[in-house]
Amino acid sequence: MESLIFEDWYLLFSGLFFVSWLVSFLAFTIFSGRYLEKMMAKEQQSIPSWDSGVGMRYGMYAMVLVCNKAAARSPIDDAAILKYARPIDRFLAIWMMSSFVVLMLIALF
Predict the structure, then answer these.
(1) Quick one: pLDDT at residue 7?
(2) Are 17 and 99 in contact (CB under 8 A)?
(3) Backbone phi, then psi, for 49, in 5-degree steps?
(4) Smallest Cα–Cα separation from 85: which of 31, 44, 49, 47?
(5) Spatial CA neighbour of 33 closest among 71, 73, 85, 75
(6) CB-CB contact of 64 with 94 (8 Å)
(7) pTM to 2 decimals?
(8) What is the predicted pLDDT for the residue at 56?
(9) Which residue has the higher pLDDT, 21 or 56?
């Protein structure tokens, strides 16, 4: 069997991290994003209306959960996200953000 060259390893790892990011984004959106928005709606908290179907707010939710800090100025309600977040939400946010960062680092090479 022929040994793998750099390009083969590059394609393998970039594909693996791309799939990891896609799965983590879908899992975070379905399980955490919908739960957080449902909890905010129960308390009459504002759900971002500017993000009509694009899904940018889910990345912002994940960044708030990874940093574990509410920003002074934010287009989303950071305090509500931190208030209603469960441990699984934080895990999914860390998985999504870390796989995205590694994917971007691989893209630099």
Answers:
(1) 85
(2) yes
(3) -95, -10
(4) 31
(5) 85
(6) no
(7) 0.86
(8) 87
(9) 21
Q: CA-to-CA distance for 60 and 84, rounded, in angstroms?
A: 15
Q: What proportions of the chain, in percent to the nearest 5, are helix, strand and coil?
A: 70, 0, 30
Q: What are the DSSP calls for 81-92, one per residue?
A: HHHH--HHHHHH
> Residues 3-18: pLDDT tens digits?
778 888 888 889 999 9
Q: Count the Cβ atoms, other than its own, within 10 Å of residue 64.
A: 23
Q: How far apart are CA 63 and CA 95, in angstroms?
A: 11
Give Cα 98 to chain centroid, integer Å.
9
Residues 6+ apart with CB under 8 A from 73: none
Q: What 3-state DSSP class applies to 73?
A: coil
Confidence of residue 2 (pLDDT cuts 50, 70, 90): low
